[in-house]
Amino acid sequence: MAATTLASSSSLLFTSHASSSSTSSSLGVYLFPLSRLSLTSFSTTLSSSSALSISPFSHSTSSRRASSISAFTVKASAAEKKKVLIVNTNSGGHAIIGFYFAKELLGSGHDVTIFTVGEETSDKMKKPPFNRFSEIVSAGGKTVWGEPADIGKVLEGAAFDVVLDNNGKDLDAVRPVADWAKSSGVKQFLFISSAGIYKPTDEPPHVEGDAVKADAGHVGVEKYISEIFESWASFRPQYMIGSGNNKDCEEWFFDRIVRGRPVPIPGSGMQLTNIAHVRDLSSMLTLAVENAAAASGNIFNCVSDRAVTLDGMARLCAKAAGLPVEIVHYDPKAVGIDARKAFPFRNMHFYAEPRAAKVILGWQGTTNLPEDLKERFDEYVKIGRDKKEIKFEIDDKILESLKVPVAV
């Protein structure tokens, strides 16, 4: 793996952070500061020529808690305008990443083409964010559709500086795009991976370099692109929030709160997770494009810098709606239900921190869940979902086992 080298025109800003943390017990929201970051934990060496070398695959869990609290922040020089191709998934929570990334790049003066998997006339394109692609076109971007295996034919004659694959979850899906990009002379290859590939740890949060599941499809992709591209980076998101998202997250809570129903949460409700506004994900990706030398060869947790408890998420959603909330806890095994079908988040501590992005790219998050949830609730009401008839069969089974009455 090639070491990351900062161009001589870039400047390094040395910063020191006091060790601290803050807690909001009323909402169950926690902040874990960057001060716990250790440059040693990133296997970082700074040479006399100001070259920063980072080896994300060699990071060990035993070294990631070292005591150093110094950090480097890259101060980018004026970015050159680039031609960027975004290969975007046609479903799921990740689809919105490509949409926001395209808009941010266009706003920064880059040339953008978004290649959506599938057909333009499919029913999927009638849903957000696809039904808002006119915003990309009106900003000067291009939109095309097709299959990854046919990317060379669909884009015949086109040339790009950067390719982001925001579609494939395994090497079979990404290889056609990566191989085409390599043969086409693409200078930088970016990949949307997933924080879900981390192995459970006794020392949360997950930080870049923690042990991952070797058999996870995303891991195979990260290894492959690191072998064939000199300039590459991988981004591991978790849950996200933002206008145009078509995967239920906060809506799951709103559905129950606006109807005066109890909100059933598995376990204690103190499990920690991470929800980031998609604008933060797109800003991190844009920094990687505009600071390619710094980003090269690195893995970034593409997440917010704050965690939230599951109970805290319910209370924040209720506050955004201006309504009370009744939370009930249950044991999925005792009730006899699959928590993955009954609840939108993992039933365990599952959160990461964006340490590498802060240190290497100088990235700062803007996610503000209380405010972001107000925006989402306004949209929830605007589309009439608060009046939509919804069945709660799994909820009813849980509440019946707990002998919790539900108003009809």
UniProtKB/TrEMBL annotation:
Residues 92-302 form the NAD-dependent epimerase/dehydratase domain. It holds the Pfam family Epimerase. SUPFAM superfamilies: NAD(P)-binding Rossmann-fold domains (SSF51735). It comes from the Eukaryota. This is NAD-dependent epimerase/dehydratase domain-containing protein.
